[in-house]
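Narrative summary of target 7.
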Amino acid sequence: MRHFSLKLATIVAAALVARPGLAENIERTISVVGEGTATAPPDMATIHTGVVTQAAQANEALAANNAALRKILDVLQDHGVASKDIQTSNFNVQPEYKRGPRGEQQPEIIGYRVTNQVRVQVRNLPSLGKVLDSLVSAGSNQISGISFGIDNPQGVLNQARNRAVADARSRAELYAHAAGVRVGKVLVISEQAAQVPRPQFLGRAMAFEAASAVPVATGEQEVRATINIVYALADRE
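Modeled conformation, tokenized:
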């Protein structure tokens, strides 16, 4: 084993002698992460709305729910929401059990609850407040959330990408200057997944109390881009 190690060391040493500039030929690089953000007002909203009905028999609860949901669908159509922007997101039929004096569930079924909820995309954002009010007036007693978005985010995303590239270059220049070298050509660029805004939720209580067009604050949407760039480094001239 010792004889093999000495032989291997001799081969490596011979290679270094044959190529004395090997260490100098290794390209020096710097890898940095750049981040950029861009904002734009939203131009669409997604809401979840539906109906919860209760009755002594399951078929009675279902019939009442169906009738109420048809009214909701008619309201959405009246506000210009296209059929492709309405999708069932939850349908549930479950028994209601009798409760004891301490609130404990007992095995006796006293009725049934039917829940039917749809996911709706409202592309005419200025009409959102009236849509919410009309839904409640039509019988919707379940509005679980609302999120705003940009229908075509490519433009604002590209702004964030440009800023991320500029940020990466600025960081590389800073580090290179501190190290006494300069930034060379770009060797590698890779992009991480863009960050999209989180949904902003609208509680049920607001929906239940609505008596006129619901005031809605849309704010702005922020898109964030993150990239990794590897630059070559060179000596200062």
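The beta strands are 29-40, 44-55, 86-99, 105-122, 142-149, 181-191, 221-235.
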